[in-house]
Amino acid sequence: MLETGPAKKVAVYVNETQQYHGAPVYSALLEFLFYHSVSGATVTKGIAGFGADHHLHTTRLVELAAELPIKIEFIESEARVGELLPKIRDIVGGALIEVHDTTVYTGKAQPAEKPGHRKLEGQAKLMRIYFGENDRWEGKPLHEAILQALRAHQVAGATIYRGILGYGPNGRMRREATFSHDRPMLLSIVDTEEKLRAFTPTLEEMIQQGIVVLSDVEIVKYTHDYQATERRSKERE
To answer: Confidence band (pLDDT; 50, 70, 90) for 63?
Structure first.
């Protein structure tokens, strides 16, 4: 979250037809910012404009309607902008990037600094979410949307399973062969109880029909004994 004080405002100008690895540049850039925990970003679509080629692009010209200008804008600290700019340049190619000094004002209390990476050991919670393959949220497959939300909430990890046989509250049997477009799905997540319960309100908004199960589990951590391996290797020499 941004704190009150100096910051940088970044604006990137592309057009609708620009691609990055098969996806629109503006979409690829927005996902990059999202997964790197940028405080917020906005994509706006112009209704008219022209660029270095001096060609006019406007919604009034049908043949040029797909070449309209797109602006991606976000505000972050100077240090974070410095970290992100090299990859942003890679994504947008030769597109115009503007960086301006700005100041952020906020009256909200600032949260404590996020803890660094920690290893899960001991008691934890296992969350299992059961739903159908056809379920969607805001136009995306539900399993993809939940996975993205979990990453945004910094949940330790999650695994998606596609079932080959199952049935839900409506009693209808779903089989891999006969119901290939609506197979049962299971999303399994392990993290602390605090982290998973904090994610529950978001999950309730996303799931229209399904089952969520929360169970106690114990994490057992196995590590590779490099010293023992080296000793055995020396003994064979």
So the answer is: very low
- Estimate the share of the chain in helix, then strand, then coil, as percent rounded to the nearest 5: 30, 35, 35
Rg, the chain, Cα only? 24
Please report, in angstroms and rounded to a whole number, the separation of the first and last CA atoms in the chain.
56
The pTM of this model reads 0.43
Which domains does the chain carry?
Answer: 5-104 (3.30.70.120), 122-219 (3.30.70.120)
pLDDT attached to residue 190? 85
User: Which residues have C-beta within 8 Å of that of residue 182, sequence separation ≥ 6?
Assistant: 132, 133, 134, 174
With cut-offs at 50, 70 and 90, classify the pLDDT of residue 155. Answer: confident
Burial string for 132-168 (b: 16+ CB within 10 Å, else e) reads bbebebeeeebbebbbebbeeeebbebeeeeeeebeb
